[in-house]
Amino acid sequence: MKPLVITPLEGLPLIQEGDNLVSLIQESLKRKNLDLLEGDILVLAQKIVSKAEGRRVFLESVNPSKAAKELAAKIEKDPRLVQLILDESAEVLRARPGLIVVEHRLGFVSANAGIDHSNVDEREGWVLLLPKDPDASADAMRTRFEEAGGAHIGVLIIDSHGRAWREGIVGVAIGVSGLPGVVDLRGRPDLFGRELRATTVGAADELAAAASIVMGQAGEGCPAVHVRGFPYPLREGKLAELLRPKELDTFR
Amino acid sequence: MKPLVITPLEGLPLIQEGDNLVSLIQESLKRKNLDLLEGDILVLAQKIVSKAEGRRVFLESVNPSKAAKELAAKIEKDPRLVQLILDESAEVLRARPGLIVVEHRLGFVSANAGIDHSNVDEREGWVLLLPKDPDASADAMRTRFEEAGGAHIGVLIIDSHGRAWREGIVGVAIGVSGLPGVVDLRGRPDLFGRELRATTVGAADELAAAASIVMGQAGEGCPAVHVRGFPYPLREGKLAELLRPKELDTFR
C-alpha cells in the first residue's frame, strides 16, 4: 500500500470574480513539479470557488424582512446577515444567541448556512455565500483538468463544519466530482471471512478533513491541495451520497 | 509548507492480549525504513489497542438485566450485547430497531458504545470493548516510543463514528497524547488582518479521519499508520478537548 500524500498548492493569488481557477491551479501544480496522474484528487476550499463565481454579497444591498429582524434580535446578529442565511436555508434547526443552525438549501446541516465573514474583502461589509451548485462547480473544473491532462482525477470542494456533539470545526465535502462520496463496504469479508456490517464510510468527508489539515484555517493562503494515494477506486460521485435523508435523522 | 504524508504500517500480526504494541510498531517502522522524527505522529486503530489490553468479552459470560432485556427487545439486538453497551454508557440518547446511540462513559456520543463485532476472533461470540482509558493508553505508548527514539512524537487512538446528519462513518479521535485535540485559532489575523472568529479546529479528529482513509475499514490489516508533516505544533493534549460539554449540546 502506498502512502497518502497531501501537498499544499501555495502561491495562488487572492481570487477575484471571474478568475480561472483551473489555470491558476495548473500553474501552481507546475511550480510544484506535480503532474495530474490517474487517481489524483484536487481539493479546493469553498472560499475560492465562491469568490471566482462571484458569490459575494454587499450587506448594504440586503433588505431584511420582518422575520429576519425578529430572528436577528433573538440571536444577536446583523439582520441583513440573518436574511441571507434564511435565503440560503431550507429550515432553521436551532437558533439561540450567537448560534443559528440550519438545513442549507444544498441539503446539509450547518451553522450560518456556511456564510463566511473572514478573508472576503479588504473593505468591510461583504460576505460570501457558498457556490450555487458545488457538485456542478466540481464537475466543470474536473472536465477542464481532464481535458488538459488526460488522466481521470477527482475534484472535491470542501468547507469546515461544526459537529453536533464534538468541539472544533472539521473539513467536510460540499461538492464532489469523480470520487465516491460514500464507500459501501457492506458484504465484504472481514479478516475472518465474516461479513462486515453497517460499514459505509464517509470517504469524501474523511478526505475533506485530511485536506483541511494542510489548508489550515487561519488564512495562510493555501486553499487548494493535491492528493495522491487515495485508496478507494474513483467513480462518479456527488454530495447527496453524504446527506442523511431527513426522515432517517433522529437528531434534529 | 511540506506535504502531509500518511504511511500505512502493514504487516502487524493479529494482535492478542498482552502483545507489546510498541515493539510490533517499531518493527513495522523498521521494515518501512521510517524513523520517528520530531513531530511525527503514530495513529492506531482502537481495535488493536483494545485487543492488546484484553478488552474482549465472551457474550456467554454476560448476564443481562431486566432493563437490558427490555431494551434489547425494542431495538432487536442480543440482550447480552445490550447489557455491555449499557455498562459502557453514561446515558442512552436514542434507541430504535437496529440503532442505539449513547453517551459513552468516556464522554463522546457513539452508536453501540463503540462495541465492535467484526475482526475480533475466529470463534463467534466475542465482542471487543473500547480501551479502559484511551488517553492513558496513548500516553503510555508515547512514553515508550519517546524513550526509545528521543524525538517528541504524538500518539492518537482512533475509532470510526457515525455523524448526526451525514451518511458514512469517519475516523475520530478517542485517545490523544502529545498532540492538540483542538487548535484554537481565535484571535489570529485573517488574510486582511481582521480577527478570525469562532475558529477552533478539531485537529485531532481531522487527523483521525485522514488516518482512517489509509487504514481502510474492511479489515485490510493496516490498523496503524505513521504521519509526517502535521502542521500544528505538538503539545500535551487529551480527548476531553474534543467533547462538547453536555450543557452546550443542543442536539441530544
Question: What does this entry look like structurally?
Answer:
Two copies of one chain form a homodimer. With 252 residues, chain A is α+β, with helices and mostly antiparallel strands. Chain A has two domains: 5-53 and 131-239, 60s Ribosomal Protein L30, Chain: A (2-Layer Sandwich), CATH 3.30.1330.100; 57-127, CofE-like domain (CofE-like fold), CATH 3.90.1660.10. Helix content of chain A is 26%, strand content 23%. Chain A has six helices and twelve strands. In chain A, helix 3 packs across helix 4 (79-87). Chains A and B meet through strand 1, strand 9, strand 11 and helix 6 of A and strand 1, strand 9, strand 11 and helix 6 of B.
Write the layout of secondary structure elements.
The structure is a homodimer of 252-residue chains.
Chain A: E1 4-8, H1 21-31, E2 41-45, H2 46-52, E3 56-58, H3 66-75, H4 79-87, E4 89-96, E5 99-104, E6 109-111, E7 126-128, H5 134-149, E8 154-161, E9 170-177, E10 183-184, E11 200-201, H6 203-215, E12 224-228
Parallel strand pairs in A: 2-8
Antiparallel strand pairs in A: 1-12, 2-12, 3-7, 4-5, 5-6, 8-9, 10-11
